[in-house]
């Protein structure tokens, strides 16, 4: 990794969030490793060099929980004012009577549109979490802010009954999105930036850390704060890949042939996935994978974030390293018209082995609880409201392997399994198996060409429906840049 | 009559003296305030006191075309200034007009532009839980129905004149932006069962000017 890498990474993440995000140069940045493709020189675990930890905070800022709480309320008020006065949403007609009714009737399951429930709500939670982080609270304190803000919204800011699934997706998704946004904001803001340089850095930082940006606006920027570029977070290594795929060769029961469906995707690996440099702070290592495809009927998106919350690393010598951790997942997966999403908690082992001086193998095995999965097949309703999806809970499992030759990731394979016991809409069980395999060859500098194969199998056995299986296969050619 | 004339003469003398004393005295914010809590930072004693109670009175006009009205407003509440620039308040206000009467409870946030001046301008953003009714003292040809209670945005601004560390005079302009409807039939068991998009929405946008006294602790 070199100085250009964070810039590319933030551009990628920003593009996914709806804006281009050039990034700053991390002071004292170290090379990226497991999960991060391009690594020069070899990481400490492989080179046996002494591990250099990022410096601690220069000064711990004083937490301001009351201000954080006030900002959470302010966020709710602002969002409510927007949807009430500008969007004129039905649910925004709130009064003491509706609040009293909500407190009396309590919780229900809400079938808003799939995209709203599993993708928009986390962004709302992102702001709550961000209010905590921007006011000096830690990860867990900010998580409470996300929970409190979501509870407040559900109870008091909508006329509809409070919804379990909104609370869960807003809180868990908000924590995940919030922490990665906050972490990336430290890479964009730059000490001593002036003029245009400062303006665009602060503007991009505002997208990633909006509440922190408001605080910086009113209270003056303080680069020693955790959200500031002087923090240790700005020195944590970052690597990844940007991929552009061409035509898709697809096979399924109702569809076959070649479709010219453009597809753009990215992977960002923040921190050392196999545990080197793990300081015990949640999200010192996480992975973000995003994908945007145009078609078959409308743009489809996938987003998968997995962050280490707790863990222990060992063996950062002798050619291998291991990290056993508890991971928080938030996933939103879509292929064709198949959709699956929700928050999970998984325990697992991430390892890296030096097979030879140039070949390295990285593996990850995880098993966990899919707390709330939303799953369905929109093939019968490709352009409709998309409110007909199942809610369920169950298990999730992940197995990943990656071979890197020299600086580049060449062969990767991953398998994900989700077993759901559905309890809303269709009652029964369903199992999802998603396999992705890819081979890539370097062509010129960081650029490479490759092919990948993806399959998605969904088997369902519901009480009121004939059991069945739906499969979808895709093969794609791609060009990618690894950094 | 004779006594009143004497009082008037005394007042005539006292008013300019008091006014001069207030205007040329050191700023209340800058004056030593032994009762004020110390700041956690290095800025020395806070030039404000955190907790305050206030009373106010003024006039309100509902300027919208849906239900124009005007009348007298009064109320009181508690404010908590959390920092140099930010505070929260809970206030209760009663309104009595020609066509409408009502009450609201306001949860307001205050944004101060200065921490140490004698005159403190501030902005108000908050919500009010409004209960507006048709004036029961008026006679109606038919049942006018019930204006459904509503939570509404409060926006405004004010000026605080700090005459002493513990006492301020306030002047505020506030607007509460009520969007609701009039219910004429029987009420449903749950008000949420009514779809607002099927109702004739009325906009009761009120503008209140009020003066008040604020006592800080």
Notes on the structure:
The complex is a heterodimer of chains A (about 475) and B (about 220). Chain A has about 475 residues and is of the alpha+beta class. Chain A folds into 2 domains: about 65-220, no CATH class; about 240-480, Beta Barrel (Porin). Helix content of chain A is about 30%, strand content about 40%. Chain A contains 9 helices and 13 strands. In chain A, strands 1-3-4-5-6-7-8-9-10-11-12-13 form a 12-stranded antiparallel barrel. In chain A, strand 12 (about 445-460) and strand 13 (about 470-480) form a beta hairpin. Residues about 1-10 and about 15-60 of chain A have low confidence and may be disordered. With about 220 residues, chain B is mainly beta. Chain B has a single domain (about 45-185, about 195-215), classed as Porin (Beta Barrel). Chain B is built from 1 helix and 10 strands; from the N terminus they run αββββββββββ. Chain B has one helix at about 1-25, and strands at about 50-60, 70-80, 85-95, 100-110, 120-135, 145, 150-165, 165-180, 180-185, 200-215. Chain B has an 8-stranded antiparallel beta barrel. In chain B, strand 2 and strand 3 (about 85-95) form a beta hairpin. The radius of gyration of chain B is 22 Å and the shape is elongated. Residues about 1-5 and about 20-45 of chain B have low confidence and may be disordered. The interface of A and B includes residues 66, 67 and 161 of A.
Q: What is the CATH-assigned architecture of chain B?
A: Beta Barrel
Q: How much strand of chain B?
A: over 45%
Please give the count of helices of chain B.
Answer: 1
> Which geometry of chain A do the CA atoms define?
globular
What is the name of the CATH topology of the largest domain in chain A?
Porin
Strand order of the largest sheet of chain B: 1-2-3-4-5-7-8-10
Please tally the β strands of chain A and state the result: 13
Overall 3D form of chain B:
elongated
Low-pLDDT residue spans of chain B: 1-7, 22-43
Please give the radius of gyration of chain B in angstroms.
Answer: 22 Å
Strand line-up of the largest beta sheet of chain A: 1-3-4-5-6-7-8-9-10-11-12-13
CATH class of chain B: Mainly Beta
Q: Fraction of residues of chain A in helices?
A: 25-40%
């Amino acid at each position: 990794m070199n100085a250009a890498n964070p810039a590319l990474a933030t551009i990628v993440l920003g593009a996914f969030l709806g804006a281009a995000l050039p990034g700053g140069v991390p002071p004292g940045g170290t090379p990226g490793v497991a999960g991060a493709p391009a690594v020069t020189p070899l990481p400490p675990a492989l080179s046996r060099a002494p591990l250099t930890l990022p410096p601690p905070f220069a000064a711990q800022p004083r937490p301001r929980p009351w201000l954080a709480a006030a900002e959470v309320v302010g966020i709710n008020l602002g969002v409510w004012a927007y949807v009430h006065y500008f969007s004129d949403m039905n649910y925004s007609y709130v009064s003491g009577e509706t609040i009293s009714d909500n407190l009396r009737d309590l919780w229900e399951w809400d079938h808003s549109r799939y995209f709203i429930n599993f993708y928009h709500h986390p962004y709302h939670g992102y702001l709550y979490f961000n209010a905590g982080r921007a006011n000096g609270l830690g990860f867990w304190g900010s998580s409470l802010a996300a929970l409190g803000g979501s509870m407040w919204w559900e109870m008091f800011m909508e006329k509809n009954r409070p919804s379990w699934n909104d609370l869960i997706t807003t809180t868990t998704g908000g924590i995940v999105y919030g922490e990665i946004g906050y972490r990336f904001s430290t890479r964009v803001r730059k000490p001593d930036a002036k003029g245009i340089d400062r303006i665009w850095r602060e503007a991009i930082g505002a997208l990633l850390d909006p509440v922190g940006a408001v605080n910086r606006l009113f209270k003056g920027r303080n680069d020693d704060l955790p959200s500031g570029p002087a923090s240790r977070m700005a020195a944590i290594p970052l690597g990844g890949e940007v991929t552009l795929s061409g035509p898709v060769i697809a096979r399924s029961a109702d569809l076959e042939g070649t479709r010219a469906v453009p597809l753009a995707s990215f992977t960002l690996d923040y921190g050392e996935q196999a545990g080197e440099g793990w300081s015990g702070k949640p999200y010192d290592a996480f992975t973000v994978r995003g994908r945007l495809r145009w078609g078959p009927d409308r743009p489809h998106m996938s987003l998968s974030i997995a962050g280490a919350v707790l863990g222990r690393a060992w063996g950062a010598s002798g050619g291998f390293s291991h990290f056993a951790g508890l991971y928080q997942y938030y996933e939103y997966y879509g292929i064709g018209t198949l959709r699956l999403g929700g928050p999970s908690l998984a325990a697992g082992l991430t390892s890296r082995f030096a097979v030879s001086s140039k070949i390295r193998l990285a593996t990850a095995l995880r098993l966990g609880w899919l707390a709330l999965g939303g799953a369905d097949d929109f093939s019968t309703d490709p352009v409709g409201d998309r409110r007909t999806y199942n809610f369920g809970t169950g298990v999730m499992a992940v197995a990943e392997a990656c071979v890197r030759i020299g600086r580049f990731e060449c062969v990767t394979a991953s398998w994900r399994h989700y077993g759901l016991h559905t309890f809303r809409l269709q009652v029964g069980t369903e199992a999802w198996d998603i396999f992705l395999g890819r081979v890539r060859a370097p062509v010129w500098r960081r650029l490479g060409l490759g092919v990948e194969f993806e399959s998605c199998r969904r088997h369902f056995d519901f009480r009121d429906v004939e059991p069945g299986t739906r499969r979808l296969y895709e093969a794609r050619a791609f060009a990618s840049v690894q950094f | 009559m004779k006594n009143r004339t004497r009082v008037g003469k005394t007042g005539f003398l006292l008013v300019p003296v008091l006014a001069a004393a207030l205007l040329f005295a050191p700023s209340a914010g800058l004056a030593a305030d032994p009762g004020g809590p110390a700041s956690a930072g290095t800025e020395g004693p806070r030039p404000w006191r955190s907790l305050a109670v206030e009373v106010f009175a003024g006039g309100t006009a509902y300027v919208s075309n849906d239900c124009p009205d005007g009348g007298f407003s009064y109320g009181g509440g508690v404010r908590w200034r959390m920092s140099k620039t930010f505070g929260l308040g809970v206030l209760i206000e009663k309104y009595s007009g020609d066509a409408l009467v009502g009450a609201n409870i306001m949860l307001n946030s205050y944004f101060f532009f200065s921490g140490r001046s004698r005159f403190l301008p501030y902005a108000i953003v908050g919500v009010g839980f409004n209960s507006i009714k048709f004036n029961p003292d008026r006679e109606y040809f038919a049942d006018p129905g019930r204006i459904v209670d509503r939570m509404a945005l409060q926006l405004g601004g004010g000026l605080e004149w700090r005459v002493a560390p513990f006492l301020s005079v306030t002047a505020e302009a506030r607007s509460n932006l009520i969007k609701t409807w009039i219910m004429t039939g029987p009420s449903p068991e749950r008000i949420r069962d009514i779809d607002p998009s099927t109702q004739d929405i009325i906009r009761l946008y009120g503008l209140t000017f009020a003066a008040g006294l604020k006592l800080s602790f």
